Amino acid sequence: MSGRNAPILQVQDLRTHFFTRAGVVKAVDGVSFSVDRGEIVGLVGESGAGKSVTGFSLIGLVDPPGRIVGGSIRLDGQELVGCPETEMRRLRGARIAMVFQDPMMTLNPVLRIGTQMRLALTAHERMSARAARERAATALARVGIPDARARLAAYPHQFSGGMRQRVVIAIALLHGTEVIVADEPTTALDVSIQAQILSEMRELALESGTALVWISHDLSVVSSLANRLLVMYAGRIVEEGPVAAVLRDPRHPYTAGLLRSLPATAKPGTDLNQIPGGAPSLLDLPAGCPFRPRCDRATDACRADPPMTLSGLRGYRCHHPIDAAAAA
Amino acid sequence: MSVAIIEVCDVHKRFAPFLTMGDRIAAQLGARVETRAVRAVDGVSLSVKRGETLGLVGESGCGKSTLGRMIAGIMAPTSGTVMLDGAPVMVDGQKADTRVQMIFQDPFASLDPRMRVGDIIAEGPLAHGLISKAEKADYVAAYLARAGLAPVFASRFPHQFSGGQRQRIATARALAMQPDVLVCDEPVASLDVSIQAQIINLFLQLRRELSITMIFISHDLSIVRHVSDHVAIMYLGRIVESGPTETVYTDPKHPYTQGLLESVPKLVLEDEALVRLQPIVGEIPSPLAPPPGCHFNPRCPYVFDACRSVRPELHPLPGGRLAACHLVTPSVLGRAS
Questions:
Q1: Domain coverage including residue B37
Q2: What is the chain B residue with the closest CA to A278?
Q3: CATH topology of domain A9-95+175-327
Q4: B332 has a pLDDT exceeding 60
Q5: What pLDDT, on a 0 to 100 scale, did the predictor assign at position A327?
Q6: pTM metric for this prediction
Q7: Using omega within 30 degrees of 0 as the cis cutoff, is the peptide bond preceding B287 cis?
Q8: Per the CB < 8 Å rule, is B226 touching A263?
Q9: Which CATH number characterizes residue B228's domain?
Q10: Pick from A162, A193, A248: which is nearest to B269 by CB?
């Protein structure tokens, strides 16, 4: 086993492809990153960028026609790619867990919350029903559900959307999970409820040392939560670095374009900066840099795939990175 | 106020459950039958000046979409009136004026998949005699161009377009009716960030070129700030605060507006500057049984006795603003202290 300071999660050159009748969809195509213990990593991109498929790959839940075709995912040193399903079932829920966008899809509508939590507990540990109830009530109280003990008898439909998402997070935290992959967990929630969950998640991660991979399309959400930012485009990470540094001084033209298209960064009433065109089809990616057709800095050099350039904590995949310091 | 093009006066909308005879008997016998009505919109008055954009903001269940539908004349209020240029938009439960049109949130649901784009856009103008069949092709081409689409798209079907392009088609359809007022209900909520910018720019351009009046409904506070001249913040069926956008955003008077603005995640540009999100405590109460007095009182940090019994009315403040809070109403504050 690795030491205390080694990254808890190491992803190397992950490739998840979908073999459809129309062709091979390279949803994730060479993604590498690592997550430290207790770190919150934000994975940002637009629809079709491959961020959810990356999340599903991490917990080994890619359904056919999708398949992890290459790369490695190491959880605390243990290889998860190609790991037998029996072993994966032992890890999933106990050491690595996932929280989905829609809590109604995760929770079983016909089982009481207490029953679902007991099942999650006894799947990994032998314990009495009474001990399971205790653990479940403590976990619910920890995510801010009032009157937790009584709420164990409630069904999912008796909770509001925000409370349901809290229940799901409580279940993910039951076993002292080391990594939680959260796929747009606050997207369906109202702003005031989202703010509550964001500030609670930050405290939980800090307190329990659980690492979070927070998948979102919303740069503002990630910026107020995460330590590090990964920007995905067309199946690969195009930029990474500490959140504030990347947002302040984006190197990749896509990150810069995304930032400039936010109303929050523009003067009210003025035209927003728009990235021309739409996301490319993953079936038929342009050769070289996939952002090339939409990029205003593109040259002939971009017909070759740009490698990930690392400098310090920052990294970007671009032949013509933006250099704010040089431009100024 | 002759400049107001839209005048909404004390509008209410209740959704009562449909009770069968059996339900009624069961309720009489003491069985648990839901007989309460949802007060989706609970006494809203507002006016919008010609050429102005009003942003309607609120969280889910606050009644913003219901209010929008009533302004657009596609849903009848339970009581109260919506006037367009001094005439009601609805007469006997029927839409009486085509000068107010609506754009919906989901462009996958709002376009008939079996109609060609040209027919979708021309259907209204043909039915209302704005154009003749002979003029259809040119008319459609003109409005497609207006919405930033190529004229050849007229012969295609909605499934051949992306979400952003479909929202452009929905916009062209609304514009083809030559409306004075456009009600946009979360028009960019289902789109990706970079596509959102394209559609928002389209709306800004339409406003500049056609001086169209817009009601822009959204839960996204930063988008509303970007497009609106005035905003109205709704909470559980009532407007709690309204006024010119920048003043409301920079100096909110109602505790709910303050909490809502605090809750919006911001882009953080300083290292390790962990933003203190100051969330509003508690949850949005059920609109079936809203708390008495001020609807916000169970979650309000400044609550006092009057808030639990007396409904605060919208009170005028300097700068053309209104706020419904006992803290800004001098008479009630005097009584409490």
A1: 4-99+179-251
A2: B195
A3: Rossmann fold (3.40.50)
A4: no
A5: 57
A6: 0.84
A7: no
A8: yes
A9: 3.40.50.300
A10: A248
